[in-house]
Design a protein that fits this description.
Blueprint: H1 3-12, H2 21-31, H3 37-69, E1 73-75, E2 77-83, E3 86-92, H4 95-108, E4 111-120, E5 123-132, E6 137-144, H5 154-174, E7 178-180, H6 207-222, H7 224-228, H8 231-243, H9 245-261
Parallel strand pairs: 1-7
Antiparallel strand pairs: 2-3, 4-5, 5-6
Helix pairs in contact: 2-3, 6-8, 6-9, 8-9
């Protein structure tokens, strides 16, 4: 037996992928000179629909499995500054911190994500695209004004808003939750710290956060359509966008969530004096 024969026999032992019945049927139609082209087109459309359905199912299974493995994301960054509007203090998770946790898990399940950014009419829009290896993808979008807080220049204001929206669209798309990380302080108090001293003391709430909380409460009680129709809400929301994009984005997310969960309603009018800001 020569080398060529041995190579051919080795090649014949390679396991072939199972044939797709739909592909085999299409091949027979193509090779048949009397084939009905309309029937062939319908078969191709059926095959595409079948593949899309399978891709959606694979995406849903992979996302469900990945979410079951992703732990709560720790808030690993602190914002703390004082301006003429008062003190701003809160903790949040960074995009790098989120990626460090979720990237290995998503990769194991054939999932990936990317961001698409648009800027128009003075606002910034970020779209998070979650894609699966089988081809199906889903998108989540949010938009806000550039973050003009502090002493940021225009480029920094846009960059800050983009980074913020990337975090929130990724969290919304994957259904992520965040929790405080006390860096093990609960188990081992610092030197000179009284063990009886209360831990995780809630920082003072800024005026912008109070305004956002009030807006969110009104949206939940009265509905986004009714609240946005109020002139005072529009004025205060516009001012919040220009002073604190972080808090304004919270309100944007609440509005988007309400609209997703509720069908548009008409004819319901509320007294603007009932909406506290």
């Amino acid at each position: 037996m020569n080398a060529v024969t041995q190579h051919q026999q080795a090649g014949n032992n390679v396991s072939a992928l199972p044939a797709d019945p739909m592909v085999s049927m299409i091949e027979r139609l193509v090779l048949n000179p009397d084939a009905d082209l309309d029937k062939l087109e319908r078969m191709l459309a059926l095959k595409r629909d079948h593949e899309r359905d399978n891709a959606r199912i694979s995406f849903a299974r992979a996302l469900s499995a990945a979410r079951a493995e992703i732990p709560p994301i720790m808030k690993d960054a602190t914002v703390d500054f004082t301006s003429n509007k008062g003190r701003t203090h809160y903790r949040h998770e960074t995009l790098a911190g989120i990626a460090k946790v979720i990237d290995p898990i998503l990769s194991l399940h054939g999932l990936s994500y990317r961001f698409r950014t648009d800027q128009s009419q003075g606002g910034v829009k970020v779209t998070c695209v979650i894609a699966h290896a089988d081809g199906h993808s889903e998108e989540t979008s949010l938009q806000c004004a550039p973050d003009g807080s502090g002493s940021k220049n225009p480029f920094q204001a846009v960059g800050s808003a983009v980074t913020y929206l990337q975090r929130y669209t990724l969290k919304a798309a994957l259904g992520l939750s965040a929790e405080e990380d006390d860096d093990a302080q609960g188990a081992a108090p610092r030197a000179g710290q009284n063990r009886e001293q209360p831990r995780n003391e809630k920082p003072p709430t800024s005026q912008a956060e109070q305004t956002a909380d009030s807006m969110i409460d009104s949206i939940r009680r009265h509905g986004a359509d009714n609240v946005e129709a109020d002139e005072r809400f529009r004025h205060e929301f516009s001012r919040l966008r220009s002073t604190d994009a972080e808090q304004a984005a919270r309100v944007d997310i609440e509005i988007a969530n309400w609209r997703e969960a509720n069908k548009p309603r008409t004819g319901e009018i509320i007294d603007p004096n009932e909406i506290p800001y």
